[in-house]
Every structure is written in structure tokens, then in C-alpha cells.
Amino acid sequence: MIEEFDEDYDCWEWFQAGKENILRSFDRKKVANGQQQQQLTRKYNNNKNNRVKTAAPSKIPNEALEEILNLQPLGMFLYLTTTSEPDFFVDQIGPNDDMERVIIYTRILITLCDLELPGFHHDLLKKVASCTPLLKHYEEIVRKLCTKSYRTMWTDLERVDKIIWYMQTLLLQAQRADVMDATAMQILFNIWMHLKSNFNPLIAERPVCKQFLYGLNFVFSVDPEILNIPRPVAELYPSLEELRQWISRKANSNPEAPKPETSYKNTTQYINNQLLLLRHQFLMPLRELVCKLHLERNLGDFKTLHFAFENVQIKLNQNFNDVLYSKLLYIDILAGKRKAAAAGEEETLAKADEHALSKLKNGTLLCLSTSYDFDNLILATVSAIDISAQSRGYIAITILRQYNIGNIYKKMLIVFETPVYFEPFQKAYRYLLNSNVLNFPMADFIVHGVNRTHPPLYLNHTQPPNVYESQKFKNKLAKMPLNISQREAFEHVLTTNFNLIQGPPGTGKTHVSLQLVKTILENAKHCAPIVVITYTNDSLDKFLLKLSAHTSSIVRFGCQLRIPEIVKFNARSDRNMHMINPKLKRLYWMVNMELKEHFQRLQSLYAAFNESKNEGYAEILATQRLIWNTQEKLNCIRIIFQHYLIAKKNVLAMTTTCAARMNFVFRFLKTRIVIFEESAEILEAHLLPCLTPFTEQIIMIGDHMQLKPYCSYIKGIRNSEYSQSLFERLIRANFHVNVLNIQYRMRNDFVDLICPLIYKKLLSHQSVTKFPPIRKMTKNLYFLDHRQFETMQNNTLPTNAWEKHNVYLISRHLIEVGGYNSDEIVVLTPYSSQVASIKSEFSKHASLKAIGVSTVDSFQGLEANIVILSLVRSNAHRKIGFLVEPTRICVALSRARYGLYVIGNMESLAHNSLTWCEIRKRLRLQNAIGCEFPYITDI
User: Fold this and answer.
1) What integer pLDDT is reported at residue 8 of this predicted model?
2) DNA2/NAM7 helicase-like C-terminal domain: which residues (predicted)?
3) Rounded CA separation 558/539 (Å)
4) Predicted confidence (pLDDT) at residue 879 exceeds the cutoff of 90
5) Concatenated DSSP letters for 670-695?
6) Of 331, 315, 420, which is closest to residue 368 (Cα–Cα)?
7) Which span out of 357-371, 466-480, 712-726, 885-899 was modeled with the highest average pLDDT?
8) Are the C-beta atoms of residues 741 and 763 closer than 8 Å to each other?
9) DSSP 3-state assignment of 763?
10) What's the DSSP call for residue 780?
11) Which of 309, 445, 657, 913 could be bridged to 424 by S-S, CB 3.0 to 4.6 A?
12) What Å distances lie between residue 62 and 51, 170, 521, 692, 723, CA to CA?
């Protein structure tokens, strides 16, 4: 067998090393490890000689190709990428090779292509596109298939379908990746012509052949109906030309995004729709910002809330030979001050600057230019959070693209982050761009709008088969701690492959999720690992804390763990895996060397660049793209390593942002079950990378009547169909949804505010009638109505001092007179500026310091015994901002268990919103609105 693992070689220590130490340790130990490396080489050579006997020095025989084909996909990838002689990707297919060899070689390529490994995938497609003999074989296959009289080899139509599918997958993905030269495009055109004039009806009517022709029509057709279909571009980020069009306000510089549909004609249309929508969601806030900066000629208010600086420079790490890729380049945000400072004087960061840097995330997209005219543009991402460097004003970056600028050093620049966080959008965009339209996961439901579900395939392999239909399980189900609506949802989910569960506030969504995971692990453990995905880190951690009572076989990805009890589940803390494929270490080193070569070449090009003649500019851009692609490879390899840690775990847990990076690991593991918590808050395109062709069951749990996916348009589109989740789209398309309708959280008084106004039917469990009344208050629910105006910070951030003072008064009363503990009270407000203002006030009073203060959005999914809600908005124009949104109103009014006290200008609220108008009526019926809180002050 071709060797996949070397059990004598322990790579754990090497991979656990920090990024900075990996390459340095390799160099330091190169001599000491010489004998070990020689031993590995001897093993590799012996293996090659024994198992891959070549007839000629550069050609792999068919028997060896068959053996490679039998490897597991990951083992195949590592074997082929670390084996240099013979090179699988060079001269393995010639014009005289027989059809059998071509098909075997193609199947190997398809296996690698299906992995969709970032960085490597692009290289693979490039190698396919540059192999002219292989492409000509494909052309000949299609020509023969389309010939009516040709019969040889094509009697097995299932095999024909597979061959067409292989060719379509490789060729259309290569074309979409823009790696085909003129020769490859000519061959692709010839294939299109053969398919168009297909004289073999037996082949022409095959669905896979029709799909191939449809895909090629998109590439070559001059039919106006096809030409008018919007096409996605290769990159999510903007080009300089687009920025210039935005500034000049040219027509069509802001095309309207396609609206989500109930169903789509085909997968190609669906993917294009999602790509265009993603780009629209990402670019529109940036468009507004760029136009504003150009008009005002300064960073203005944006700098207060975001990372934005003038007079910065890009600096090369002088020790770039000794550091890893993430710290090769830096932005010096103090460059202007350093230049003006006296000799020997050390510049330090202002407090506001420290705050801006502390909020930066890995993967944030930064835009740099020499002026607000945007005659040039550099796009870079934050590549590492280097606390030491940041304290001195340096931000580690990776250049994505540069436009109309040669040498990037020694130029004073402006820099600002994009309003929308780049990384999750970029990962989703790349996933969709590379998606295989023929093997798109759950396409029946997601693309075609099919409503009819069926049992997940894995139930055929449970013991006994279809275990959930057995009497033994039904008896057990009857004893589970579930109410009627929860049990109905539970039974339906276990036996269907695509599920929606809507849970209004307090109805036990998380409880149902936990019972589902526990039950699946008990009855269908062969389907592990189960993938659990949430929108926020807080919700994920709280879910895992409860799940840990049922299983400890959990891996939690991502580093933002806030609960100490689950730190042991962090992927970085797992030390149980001691043996990994040693070829992974070799590959990491090879790619690191490749990156260093590209980077050194780029520095030489910068040094030799003649700005007046623009000589060498094209080569600078090409090398920059090579560097970016190589960095993608390194990130990919580090994630591949985690595959070895999680292969035998029961539960993999992460946020959607993390899941977008992990798609190919899901493919390695062939994960079958994916559970989405908070699914109504996840943009549809961000959910898709969590799925693979191996996904057999999807369970989406959420509530589209609460918070929806966030799209940070400057003008706001929160309620727009452009920010719709897949969860909501399917419900609106009348897909079956199980609704949990018994709530355990709130007093009936609070329920009356949102039902039937927002929810048609929401019952209360009898336990809520036993809630104790709030001490030292005559009312458990009260709205303090006022007309005191807000003030604006930086023209964008509203605060209300009068409300802040009354929040302080009622908080002090509840603690000092009512005798409540600070952990029983939470203060909520829609605006982060009011959060900061109230926190500042509480910090002055020892008894109030520990009271939680949060935005409404960040408290979604949580609850508190007593909630004090400051609505802030009160002004002469009666504007109420996003308080007009029923979803926000719903979340704000449904967090409290025992006591809810609201402060706001009801006149303005009711003037702008029918929802608030109805709420005012209900408050008046309960005598729960007035100009003073109903304190009880006597003993």
C-alpha cells in the first residue's frame, strides 16, 4: 500500500508550536534532524520503488494510478503534493494515451477537486487548464458521444453520465476560476459546439449533458436572454474602477441586487443570485463611506467608531526571513507622528487609537490610498493580532490587491476598515464561487423549493433500522421532559432530513436542541460527529456548557471562549492526538519556502520599480497574487491539521464565521448532521458553506420574528428582503415548520405585549403564574413616558441623559430598598452609546457596579429576572431609528421574567410605529404607563 501514516513519527510538538516558532525551529533543527529526514526519505523511496513502479522516469503507470485512486482523499492529496518524482501533475497524459488512463487520471483530479482546499484548489484548476493533451482527450470524448453512429464504450449510460460529470466539473470550474489560456478556451468552445449540434439523442437527453450545455451557454452564448443575466465577478472586494465609478456617480455603478426567490430554475441561477447578493451586502456600506470620504476630505465621524487613520505607511518587517507569513508587512499608524517627532523621541498611542486597535479582528479588510481622490488603492487584510506590535502602532497585514501604485513603501496613506467585516463574507463568496452545481448540498429544498421531506439516509444503518419507529424508542420518548409542541417538533425532526423549528421567546429552543443531540448520539452514534453551529460565541458557549452534562466528546473551534468550564473543549487545548501524517509537516515546510521565495521576489521588484515608466508593475501584481494564494495554502494546512484532532469526536461546535473556514474539513469527515442554532440570524449565503454533499440532515432552530441577519448598510436595510435568512425564506415559501408555542419565561402581562401582535399563538406554562411580585414596586410592568430629548455624539450616536438618570434611580431603588442582588437585574438599551453612558454612571456607585448593561441585540437569546429598558430616542423630529422594527421590539420586550420597566418617549414611538401604538393601548389597559415609576418607599 502507498504509505499514508508513519506511526514512528510524532508531529504533535511541531504543530502545537506558535506560528512564529514553526519555521525557526525547523531551520534550527535542520542539521540535527538530518538523519530523521533521511530515514523518512528512504521510507518514501522504498515505498515508491515497491508500489509505484514506473515504466519511464516521468510517467506513472496505470496500476499505480489505480492505487492512488484507492487512497482516502486527504491521504491522496498529501501523497501527490509532497511527491516530486514522478510529478503527478506534469506530463502524465499524452495524445496517445488510452481512454482508460484518461478516465483514471480524471477521477483522481475529481477527488482532489472535490476537497476544494483553499489555495490548492486554484492551483489544481490551473494545472488542469494547462494540460492541453487532457483537454483534447475531453474534446474527443464529447465529439464521439455526440456522434449518432458512435456506439463503442457508450452502452453503459451510468458510466457516460459520470464521465460527462467529471469533465463538466473540471472544465467549468477552471473557466470560472479564470485560469484558462486561449488554447484551453478554444477547446472548451469546440466542446460547446459539439454539444450544441449533438446528433445522438440518447446522449443529448441525459440531464447531465443538458446541465453541461447550460453551463457552457453562460460562457459562450450571444443569446440576449442569457447575456442579460447578471454575472458575479471573481472577487468580493471592489476594484479601483468601481470606486471611481462610485465617486463619479456613474450609471449602473450601483446595480440593484437580485431579490431572493421562492425557488430557482437551476443551481447555477441560485449560486449566481447568492454571489450577487453577497457582494451587494458587502459593498453598499463601503460605497456610501467612500463617497462620503471623497466629499468631506476627512475621516470624520467614521474614525470614532472604526479603525481609520491618516498619514500611515506600509513597513516591511526587516527580519522577514525569520518570521512567518502573518507578520511580513505592517501598517505604521504613527508614521506621520514619528516623522515629525524629534530624534530619539518615542511616539505612543493615544487612548482613542488604542481603543480602535483593540477592536480590530483578524481578516478585517483595510483600504489604503494616497488621497481622498482615490487615484490608487491598496487592499489588505489584518493577518495577525500582534498585541506587542499594536501597542507600538503597528498592524500586521497581508496585501490582497494594489491598483495604480507600484512601490507601496515610503508613501503616506490614509487607511480605513470596511464597514462590513470581510472574512465571513469572503469565505462564503469563495465557497459559492467554487461550488459544484452538479453536487450542491440539499439542492431540492434550498434551490428548487421542494416541500416534501424524507427520512435521513443514516437511519437505514441504525440498530434496529429506523430506530425512531421502534416501540422501545416511543416508550422512551413519552418520558422525555418535553411539552406537547416540543414533542411534536422532536419526533418530526428525528425522522426527516430537512427541518425548521420556530421557537418564540422562552419556549425552550435550546432545550429541544440539547435533547436532539443527546438522542441522536444515543441512537445513531455512527453518524458522529454532529456539527453544531450558532451565530454568536456567547450562545455557542452556553449551549456547550449544557451539552457537556451529556457528552464530553466535544471540540469547540474559535478562540473567544468566555466560560471557563468549556475551555477544555477548545480545539487548541486538545492534546489527545499524537500521530498525524508526517507529509503534512513536509507540505507546510514546502509551502513556507514557496512563500519566502515569492516574498523575496516581490521585494526585488519593488526595489527595481521605475514609477515614471511603470516598468515591472504587471509582474508586481502577479507576484502579489501568488503570495496571497500561498498564504491561503498555509492557512488551509493548519486547518487540515485539526482534522486529525476531531475525527473521533461526537460534536463539533463553532460559529458561522469559523464554519466557513472549515468546509473542507467537513468534507474529510463526511459529516452528515448539521444543527443550526439562531438560524434566523444567519444570512443565507453564510449558512451554505456549513454544508457538504455528504450532509444528510439539516436542523434549523430559530425565530425570524426576533432578530434577523445583520447587514450594516449605512442607510439601514434590517427589515429588507436583502437581509433574509434561509430559515425565513423557506417559511415564507410555505415550507413545513414546527412551532414551539408554550413559553416558560415571562409573566402573562409581558406576553400580552407581543401576542397576538407579533405571535398569533403563544401560551404560558402554569409556572409563570407563580412568579413572585417585584418587591417595593406596585407594578411588575411599567412604561415611564417622557419628552426629554436625546443628545447626539458625533452626529450618529444617541444618548439620553434623562433616561440614564432614571435608570440609575430605579436600579438603586431595586437594590437598596428592594433588596435585589445585582445579578438579578439587567439594563438593556438599543444603542451602544447609551450602554457606555450608563456603565460610566454605574461605575461611580459601589452597589451598582456589578449590574449588567447590554445592547438589546447582544442580549438576544438571554433572560434576566428584572429588565430595565432605556429606549433613548426622543427628539423634535420624532425619529425613532430602528425602534420601528417589530423584531427589535419583540426582543426588547421579551427578556424579562419577573419585572419589566421601560423608559421612553411613547408619543414618538407610537407616531412612527403601529406596533408601538398597539403596545400603548395594552399598557393603558393594564394601567402600566405614566410619568413616574410606581415605587414603594415606605417600610
Assistant:
1) 32
2) 722-906
3) 13
4) yes
5) T--EEEETTGGGSBHHHHGGG--TT-
6) 331
7) 885-899
8) yes
9) strand
10) S
11) 657
12) 12, 21, 43, 31, 51
DSSP, res 292: H
Q: What is the pLDDT of residues 727-750, one digit of tens each?
A: 999 999 999 999 999 999 999 999
CA distance 447 to 444: 6
Q: What is the pLDDT of residue 44?
A: 38
b/e code 304-324 from CB counts within 10 Å (16+ = b):
bebbbbebbbbbeeeebeebb
Q: What cell does 584 get?
A: 503534512
For the chain, what is the largest distance between any 2 Cα atoms, rounded to a whole number of angstroms?
Answer: 102
Of 314, 323, 461, residue with least CA distance to 399: 314
SS3 of 96, please? coil
* Backbone dihedral angles phi then psi of residue 748, each to the nearest 5 degrees: -60, -30
Q: At CA 789, angle to CA 783 and CA 792, rounded to 5?
A: 120
Rounded to whole angstroms, what are the CA distances from 194 to 176, 204, 209, 808? 20, 11, 11, 77
pLDDT digits (tens, 9 = 90+) for 812-850: 999 999 999 999 999 999 999 999 999 999 999 999 999
Q: Which residues lie across from 610 on neighbouring strands?
A: 615
Find which of 202-206, 210-214, 336-340 is predicted with most confidence, using mean pLDDT. 210-214
Q: 381: which strand partners?
A: 365, 398
Q: To the nearest whole percent, how much of the chain has pLDDT over 90? A: 55
Place of cell 450602554: 835
Query: CB–CB of 752/289 below 8 Å?
Result: no
Cβ(81)–Cβ(587) below 8 Å: yes
- Amino acid identity, position 481: P
pLDDT in tens, 254-308: 556 777 788 888 888 899 899 999 999 999 999 999 999 999 999 887 887 789 9
| pLDDT attached to residue 464 | 77
Q: Collect all residues with Cβ–Cβ distance below 8 Å to 474 and sequence separation of at least 6.
A: none
In order of 99, 479, 674, the CA distances from 68 in angstroms are 18, 51, 31
Distance of CA 857 to the CA centre of its chain: 19
**Distances 435 to 258, 270, 507 between C-alpha atoms, Å:** 19, 11, 37
The alpha-carbon radius of gyration of the chain (Å, integer) is: 30
* CA pair distance 910, 908, nearest whole angstrom: 6
CA distances from 318 to 23, 312, 344, 891 (A): 17, 18, 20, 52
State the Cα–Cα distance between residues 395 and 392, nearest whole angstrom.
Answer: 9
pLDDT band at 329 (very low <50, low <70, confident <90, very high): confident
- What is the value of pTM for the model shown? 0.87
